[in-house]
Amino acid sequence: MNATVRKTLNFLRRLVVAAIPILLFFALWEYGVRFLPKGVIAPPSRIFKAMFAEFIRTVPAPNTANLTILGHMAKSLNRVLRGYALALVCGLTLGFLLGTYFRPLERLMLPFFRVCEKLNPFAIIPVFMIIFGIYDKEKVAIVFWAAFWPVLFNTQEGAKNVDSQLVRAARSMGASKFKLFTGVIVPYTLPSIFTGLRLATRVAFFMIIASEVIGATSGLGWYYAQQGATHNLELRYGTILFITLLAIIFNAVFGGLEKRSLRWKEALLV
Amino acid sequence: MTGVEAAAETSVPKIEIVGLSRAFGKKGSKEKFYAIQDFNLSIRQGEFVTVVGPSGCGKSTLLDLLVGLSKPDGGSILVDGKAITGPALDRGIVLQGYALFPWRTVRKNIEFGLEIKGVKRGERAELVRHYVKLVELEGFENHYPYELSGGMQQRVAIARALAYDPEVLLMDEPFAAVDAQTRETMQDELLSIWEKTGKTVVFVTHSIEEAVGLADRVAVMSKNPGRVKAVIDVGLPRPRRVSDVRNTIDFNVITSRVWELLQNKEPLPEREIPQTNVEEAIHDDAII
Ligand SMILES: Nc1ncnc2c1ncn2[C@@H]1O[C@H](COP(=O)(O)OP(=O)(O)OP(=O)(O)O)[C@@H](O)[C@H]1O
Ligand SMILES: [Mg+2]
């Protein structure tokens, strides 16, 4: 038996083991619903059926009001990605600047930034709605606001603590400022950046759904609120499951990316 | 003095340190603290000089100045007759601790200086092969530092400093963190590398045995301020293995002289060293 086969088998075994409690949970759910009054919780079998129908439903092209759940997902993802990308660019830039070349500014700016971070993001949503309206711009701004701080703080913290011996080693070999940055500071900071990105992903997801529930005309959050308004129990619970699944997929992709780029940290991560 | 040495003496020294001083600001006062003051030392091309002295006497500070990571507050350092202006590829340093890049494999660590030097990929691979072999790390090219023992990491640091072929190699307590047996093996390896490459070496250590075993000359430093107290000619035969000379009378006589210099405030006049002292010196060799 060669290594790849063994690896695949191992993976399958782990998958099966992990699936057992989940399947058990669904079985219990399916069975338990019968003892509850009608209209409180939908059984999984009906949820999956309704979701399947929703997935394969076709929509006349220009009719955005009648988008399927996938259409709304695309809307939400689009907003998340734009806000996230913006937060990434700004957070990394400012984080590296404050952590390295503009260290003296750290004392001046950081306390203020900390206060900004502490503002309750839910409390901010109405303010942003007044400033930006309830369309894409507002959603992107909210995701940006939520994702920016963890990226900024973790980048700054990581860059600030770069091992001075490593900087000296690089400089002793005649490294230019640029080489010092790309060859030492960035790789050294990468683990903290990933910590920041992970936190940012979580809050970005959280905030997009929340802001769409509170006020929007499209997106997964709006879609979810809509099913509540029309008393469609199956799709309502289906949407919750679907959002959970999306979060799991995102986490897995991120985890894989992180593991790949931080292979040298493996000993410390285990 | 041999003919070769006499010739070297008349030509320009490889490194000429004159009246060197380096001061640090004291916390909460305008006063300055001189880590190094009025330091003088002249080092010949291809010479192996070791530096010993009490902790905090400015040994690391001296190497920093030599490699160009910091600037002197007085005096000058000439390499090949020219004042140094900063770090350059003609001088390489093995820093205290290994200072390997943990995100780079052994190969990529060794390549760092070569990348800066602008060496092409193919040639880099060739050089890595050569230096990995020199420090006996074949088969570990694709390992990360955390997968290596302390001694192996140390050898990577040495290979990294050698790879871009500096004429001067500066080493700051490179063998401090390895066990006694590994240390001796690595001392002998270093000597054979030095014999093969003919580089000028300035080697800082806490161990008197190591200082004497490796060196052509031992510079003994004093503290507050850091300066050269005495320079001892070793004169043990070359090519040399530390394990071979360690038990000779000559070795023990020189070791105890260095030992005395470090213990006394003022340099002693040269004299015959009584046998009992030699015995003592053998027993409390090593770490000060
Ligand atoms: N960046 C710095 N700022 C202030 N003082 C410093 C700095 N670097 C070194 N010193 C001081 O200079 C003196 C010499 O330090 P150095 O590290 O050169 O000693 P050393 O001889 O290498 O000691 P050790 O053997 O313990 O490594 C010490 O008193 C130290 O406190
Ligand atoms: Mg030191």
Structure description:
The complex is a heterodimer of chains A (270) and B (288). Chain A has 270 residues and is mainly α. Chain A has two domains: 1-35; 41-269, MetI-like fold (Orthogonal Bundle). Helices cover 80% and strands 0% of the residues of chain A. Chain A has helices spanning 3-32, 44-56, 69-99, 103-118, 121-132, 136-160, 164-172, 177-214, 220-229, 233-261, 266-269. The radius of gyration of chain A is 23 Å and the shape is globular. The model of chain A has no long low-confidence stretch (mean pLDDT 86). Chain B is an alpha/beta fold and 288 residues long. Chain B has helices at residues 3-10, 59-67, 106-117, 121-134, 150-163, 180-197, 208-214, 242-245, 249-263, 275-283; strands spanning 15-25, 32-43, 48-52, 74-79, 82-83, 91-94, 168-172, 200-204, 217-222, 227-233. Chain B has a domain at 100-166. In chain B, α3 (106-117) packs parallel to α5 (150-163) and α4 (121-134) packs across α5. The two termini of chain B are 32 Å apart. Chain B has a six-stranded mixed beta sheet, with helices on both faces. Chain B has a four-stranded antiparallel beta sheet with strand order 2-1-4-5, with helices on one face. Residues 271-288 of chain B have low confidence and may be disordered. Residues 59-60, 96, 172 of chain B line the site of magnesium ion.
